[in-house]
Amino acid sequence: MPPVRCFTCGKPLGHLWRAYWDRVKSGEDPGRALDELGVRRYCCRRTLMTSITYAEHLSKYYSLTRESFIGAGEER
Ligand SMILES: [Zn+2]
Fold this sequence. Notes:
Blueprint: H1 14-25, H2 30-36, H3 42-73
The protein binds zinc ion.
Residues 6, 8-9, 11, 41, 43-44 line the site of zinc ion.
C-alpha cells in the first residue's frame, strides 16, 4: 500500500510514490530516483523504499487470493 505520508516526519509522499515506482521498475537506481524527486530526508527515503518491498510481497498474495476467490465461485 503506498504511503500517504512519511511515518516519521509527516511529509506528504503519496503523490511521489507512483513516479518513484515507475522509475525503479524501468531500471533506475532507487537512490537517484529519490534525489531527483526531491526526497532528501532519510526518514522519507526509508518510507518510500520500504513500501516498495511491501507492495511486491502483497502483489504475490493478491494473485493467489484472487485465483482462489474465482475458483471458489465456479460450479463443479
Ligand atoms: Zn520523513
